[in-house]
Design goal:
Number of domains: 1
Helix content: over 70%
Number of strands: 0
Largest sheet: none
Oligomer: single chain
Strand content: under 5%
Order of helices and strands: HHHHHHHHHHHHH
Length: 404
């Protein structure tokens, strides 16, 4: 419910950003978000996945305290080291991403705020305090709308900095809310148990490799669009991504955020597998047609500067269906633990290399349409692979891992 209400409150921000900033400035903000997904990898260090894997696995409050304490301390250290490293290697980032110094500094600030939000949001979700998660999401959206409106209409800042700063302040507000709960109400402290630290670290390290490949698969499209075409097309493409994700992505994410922590402790994975098959059969066509309509409508809302293209709308709608399918089976596989994560990493490594080739070749050849065609191809491969792996795990009785 929090994600839905948060999306309703935050939806005007995306529309205002597109209509008032235009494709180029919106493209700069999109680049910042893409670069952020790279910068946060060593900051988060896979800790959000570790939290959602091991905190729900025990009902012992003292043990939960040790896991939360370790994750919080480790996150502080990784963020500090990562920030120093990125500042020291700034010229390299400017060259690789093809960005200005201004975009670099804003991306670094945005990354720190995003990383902290991801980690503490994952901790609160893992403790199953969904009421607090709800308040955090609503607060985040409300602050984003308010700050962006002030910067846009009162300060008259019609550049990428206005939307970036609004998001940073919004993340900070939610982080303070979560920290207030963890330190005062839940009374968590920095007490560390060695065996838990080792388990979380091991699982989190596996998550890092997945995060790197996830960045390359999910963000190289905008980076190549910037380098091969222009910021204008980065902005247009990003608006289509937002349009595709506003409704279907948000509703599905609501389900996914509850789905993974709960299936981690469910021993009967075959029952879950059968239910997923039935669920997808009845939802595939509604997802596709609803995506077609919602994408067209949202692109129209963004204004005349963003072209409405049927080929892009149909491909993004198909991609929504594939995304929902592979995510369901991927997280079912990951819920097994280390063995499941290893299987996920195998396909991620292969698809990362294929992803780089497809994006570069197809964008160079047919422009923006090549970016979404590459994404559809990758997600189709994911769908087939994860479905087959889950079936293999169930058949061979591999969904067993004792959590100490």
């Amino acid at each position: 419910m929090g994600e839905i209400i948060g999306s309703i409150i935050g939806f005007p921000v995306k529309i205002m950003a597109g209509r008032f900033l235009g494709p180029i400035e919106y493209g700069k903000f999109a680049l910042i978000m893409s670069i952020t997904q790279f910068f946060i990898i060593p900051m988060v260090f896979g800790l959000s996945s570790g939290a959602q894997r091991y905190i729900p696995a025990t009902e012992d409050h003292d043990r939960q305290k040790t896991i939360v304490g370790f994750i919080s301390l480790f996150f502080l250290i990784t963020t500090l080291i990562s920030t120093i490293f990125f500042i020291a290697t700034k010229p390299l980032s400017l060259k690789i991403f093809g960005i200005s110094e201004a975009i670099f500094w804003w991306a670094l600030l945005f990354s720190i705020a995003t990383a902290a939000f991801y980690v503490f949001d994952a901790i609160v979700r893992s403790l199953k305090n969904f009421k607090l998660v709800y308040h955090g999401i609503v607060l985040n959206s409300f602050v984003t709308v308010t700050i962006f409106a002030v910067l846009l209409f009162w300060i008259d800042d019609k550049s990428f900095t206005s939307i970036t700063l609004a998001n940073v302040i919004a993340f900070a507000s939610s982080i303070l809310l979560y920290l207030g709960f963890l330190t005062h109400k839940a009374k968590f402290c920095l007490k560390i148990r060695e065996i838990d630290a080792k388990k979380v670290t091991h699982y989190s390290v596996l998550g890092i490799a997945g995060a790197v490949t996830g960045f390359l698969i999910g963000n190289t499209d905008r980076i190549f669009l910037n380098q091969i075409l222009s910021l204008y097309w980065v902005g247009v493409y990003s608006v289509y991504i937002n349009a595709a994700n506003v409704f279907v992505g948000r509703f599905f994410q609501l389900f996914l955020n509850v789905y993974f922590p709960n299936i981690s402790g469910e021993p009967n994975k075959k029952k879950i597998f059968n239910k997923l098959g039935k669920l997808f059969k009845v939802s595939m066509l509604p997802i596709f047609f609803f995506s077609v309509f919602s994408i067209w409508f949202i692109i129209w809302l963004f204004g005349k500067e963003f072209p409405v293209r049927l080929d892009l709308i149909l491909l993004f709608s198909l991609n929504n269906c594939l995304y929902v399918f592979y995510q369901l089976y991927m997280w079912l596989l990951n819920s097994q633990g280390v063995r499941g994560m290893n299987q996920t990493l195998k396909i991620l490594y292969f698809n990362t290399a294929l992803n780089l080739v497809l994006f570069y070749v197809l964008i160079s050849w047919i422009g923006i349409i090549g970016a979404i065609m590459a994404t559809v191809t990758i997600n189709l491969i994911f769908s087939v692979y994860f479905y087959c792996q889950v079936r293999r795990f169930i058949k061979n009785g591999l969904f067993i891992e004792k959590v100490e």
